[in-house]
Amino acid sequence: MAYPGPGGYTWRMTSSVSVHLHGRRVILGITAGIAAYKAAALARGLVRAGAEVQVVMTPSAREFIGAMSLQAITGRPVREAIFDAQHEAAMGHIELARWAELILVAPASADFLARLHAGLADTLLHTLCLASEAPLAVAPAMNRLMWANPATRANIAGLLGRGVLVWGPAEGEQACGEQGPGRMLEPDELLRRVAGALAGGRFAGRRVLLTAGPTREPVDAVRFVGNRSSGRMGFALADALRREGAEVCLVSGPVGLETPPGVERIDVETALEMHAAVMQRLDALDLFIACAAVADYRPVGPVSHKIKKNADVLRLELVKNPDIVAEVAARSRRPFCVGFAAETDGLESYAEDKRRAKGLDMIAANRVGPGLGFEAEDNALLVLWEGGRTRLPRQPKARLAEQLISLIAERMDAQTTTEDS
Fold this sequence. Notes:
By secondary structure, this protein is of the alpha/beta class. The protein contains 15 helices and 21 strands. The chain folds into two domains: 2-198, Rossmann fold (3-Layer(aba) Sandwich), CATH 3.40.50; 207-302 and 315-420, Rossmann fold (3-Layer(aba) Sandwich), CATH 3.40.50.10300. Helices cover 35% and strands 24% of the residues.
């Protein structure tokens, strides 16, 4: 069903969004920022989907959007003041905090996020965020330099560590005329994420298998052929998928990372061990993500003792390892398959060739080199699928994982819709 919304948006509401939001109670927080005008379209979408919406604004937000419009859309007076005689006689802010099933702050300014991270409660909206047990999501919106500032990055990292859902920001043209990350996600994307969160997550009921880390191919009793993969990207994906309701099994090469909460972990060392672990766990699988940096070759006949340094030249004979993701993608009853490509040059052409050759539904490609990809805290991805592409800018791998699984969810849903039509 499609219908026009404020600001020229056209909503295309799926039946699943309506089912997941019917009768659900949402606090929509609005902070001071030019993106506040999009909150009217978001409120309209939530109401049209059947949600009960209570708007709570910070005092400065009134400079950007009028309360009367939001009250007309939601059918509820907009709340703003902590000390409100009409509501506070019976501890109204606590009642409202208990009423909410989800709190979404959109837009969330840099100032609001800093105060939230500090645990301040000097506005009604901050107080509700502290006093509610409901899931809390924020949709950041700010200038690209404010988003990149180390203080903002530290605040975001702290909020993520506390379980706050950080949705966005998107990258593109900003109100100031600059280009870069900092735009609030569009209302239709936020609507989908609210529906997913209230349904238990966008991957609720889905079984996911993913690989992460390097493999080590033994040469002798102490040496091996390996690579620089830290496993951080794969572990971040496992954590993000689990928080979105997926049942996650992580097959990991040798890394020094803690297992994300709620994730089943299988430790392996070689490519053959990883291949065996994956092939044993493919039944009734919905999604397979091959994030591991699997060695393409392994030494023939590794020896059980340490090779002594006697000869000036040591020659190793190598044999090709099985291609795990291509083998999974070639199965007649296969899950949605996502691969990774790490390249030093020709990123897009090599990645697209790999996607087509292996029969993948999607591929995430990144450059590797000094300070990029392997052994780095952050990364950037070029994501390709049949007929589409998008770039995810350089950022911490935890944030990158959230954005990537959002793309995966969209493509899986689109594929299901196409197959059912």
